[in-house]
Amino acid sequence: MTATDTTPVSTVSLKQTSLHAEHAKLGASFTDFGGWDMPLKYGSELSEHRAVREAAGLFDLSHMGEVWAAGPDAAAFLDYALVGNLSAVQVGKAKYSLICTPAGGIIDDLIVYRLAEDRFLVVPNAGNAPTVAAELAERAAGFDVTVTDASATTSLVAVQGPAAEAIMLALVPDAEAEKVTGLRYYASAEATVAGIPVLLARTGYTGEDGFELFVPNAQAPVLWAALAEAGQPHGLSPAGLACRDSLRLEAGMPLYGNELSLATNPFEAGLGPVVSFKKEAGFVGRAALEAAKAAGPARTLVGLKGLGRRAARAHYPVLNDGAVVGEVTSGQPSPTLGYPVALAYVDAGLAEPGTRLEVDLRGKAEPFEVVALPFYKRQK
């Protein structure tokens, strides 16, 4: 099920975040996402999308996983377990990476924060968090490292948008203002927000500037309320998964289950630079990934700009002169740009920007053009 699926579901077996009651008070519509009962939208997903682009949005991301790796061999362990060179990450910085199977398929994409020389926080996606935690625990054999899954006790709240920094500055002590203003993209620091100790990270999934705040579950409702109040003068709006999906699509960011899967390798997904073959030691999937790189991808993930008014959707066939040459993985109208956008896998020979293709929209071929990603890039 995708972030925009509104199929009614039973919530009996779904997990709830510590902020579920807050979302219900705000009148949120809920949906199943990765086994969690999550807010899809609070009112208009279009207004929530625009709030993030123009002011700020407040997201509950507590369904995401948090897995700690600590010990003398923590860096070496992550170099082995993931495809990236994590031992090269400086303390206080973060790195986007992948965990792959021995065959090179993508188990998940994730962010790794280095909090100390021997302590890292791995943040996998919601539906994959238990799988990633178990896989990391298994791969830790032979390393002097402790892997701890803290997903069930940790909440994650995000403030995304041009006003994000101003909102954060309203809630940190004056002595810690530099921790906000001086925090670079893909970096983190321990800070005090609304009197609550948090791990503050300048990361996000919207294409905008913003912050993500990790706190124990018990502190999440107080933190959420403080952020909502501080954000009111800045136009902050609570934001659900529906606008999160349209925001990440405009920013050309992949969603696991759509663009990424066990049947996908990093090179066809455009994530080849994430894989580090400079590491001296081996890592899980290295041989398969070296072979995949040498062979080159048969298909490539591309951005498609609609030349008409109708939007492509996931699983719609991509055509070239009437022949099927690929498949859409995500697609919808872009609220910011005013035309349809989509991500799709197409034959590698058709991936050049400017290439004209068509998408079969339920029996009618509509024109699209391959364009460079991202579709939307914020003004610095």
UniProtKB/TrEMBL annotation:
Boundaries of every GCVT N-terminal domain copy: 19-279
Keyword Transferase included in the entry's annotation: yes
Taxonomic placement: Bacteria, Bacillati, Actinomycetota, Actinomycetes, Micrococcales
Function description: The glycine cleavage system catalyzes the degradation of glycine.
Record field: catalytic activity: N(6)-[(R)-S(8)-aminomethyldihydrolipoyl]-L-lysyl-[protein] + (6S)-5,6,7,8-tetrahydrofolate = N(6)-[(R)-dihydrolipoyl]-L-lysyl-[protein] + (6R)-5,10-methylene-5,6,7,8-tetrahydrofolate + NH4(+)
Membrane-traversing stretches: none
Top EC category: transferase
Residue ranges of every copy of the Aminomethyltransferase C-terminal domain listed in the record: 299-377
Name of the gene: gcvT_1
Record keywords: Aminotransferase, Transferase
Family assignment from sequence similarity: Belongs to the GcvT family.
Source organism superkingdom: Bacteria
Complex and partners: The glycine cleavage system is composed of four proteins: P, T, L and H.
Protein name, entry field: Aminomethyltransferase
Known EC number: 2.1.2.10
